[in-house]
Structure formats: C-alpha cells, structure tokens
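Researcher: We're teaching a course module on how sequence relates to structure. For the next exercise, students receive a sequence and then see the predicted structure as tokens, so they can try to spot secondary structure elements on their own. Here is the exercise chain.
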Amino acid sequence: MKTVALLAAFCTLSACTIIPPTNGPLPPSTDGIARAALGHKVYVDGPSVTPLAVIEDSRCPAEVQCVWAGRVRISARIDLGARSEERELTLHQPIQVADGSLELVEVTPARTKEAAIPPGDYRFGFRFMGGI
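Model: And here is the predicted structure for the students to work with:
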C-alpha cells in the first residue's frame, strides 16, 4: 500500500515540472547566435525565424581542397510581429529585414566526403543586426 501511495505522490509532483514548448521561439545563445533546426522557430533579437528547406548546399566537403568553397541557401519564414514573409537566405549574406539586417551565420554539420547531410541533421545559426 505504501508503494502505491509513494508512486501516486511521485506522479503528482512530477506533473508540476515546467517543460518549455519545443515549437516556440527560443532566445539567442550567449554568443548572440540564435540556432534552430529545420521547421523549428527561433527568436533572433527582433524577428523570429523558421528554417523551412535547404535549397542548395554546394559547400566543399570538410578536409578537401576545392577551387570554389560552395554555398548554402535556405528558405525561411520570418515573423515580424503582425506579418510574416518567406525569404531566401544565403550563408554569410545579410538581407534587409524591417529596421535591420538578418544573416545566416552558420550551418552545421559540415559537409563530408562520405555522404550528403540528411535534412533532419541541419542546424542553422542566425543573427539580427540593427533595430531601434
């Protein structure tokens, strides 16, 4: 009987744990870069950004010497308060958004010689500069 009472008390107490939503905006990390996976929204010091799809990843594989480094382009939904828009972002090329600029500053993991990156393995880092 004591076991049942302890189990009931444990279940009741564990229900009080606050777990943040996984699909809500997340704050930027301490380095000022807001990171998100495909389909996940992240707060980027002004707008919120949701990476939607990888359009191109033609980066040179890690540990390989290439003539051209390649590039990464993604489509993303940018939420600006009452409105949102879908835009294309290219790694290290800021775009004008509202009263500042939004930049895709990192894409991980790095490409490898062995295989292409599965879509679920991508992580993107964003930075917003400007604003009032």
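Model: If you want an answer key for the exercise: The chain has one domain: 21-130. Residues 21-130 form a domain with the Tick-borne Encephalitis virus Glycoprotein; domain 1 fold (CATH 2.60.98).
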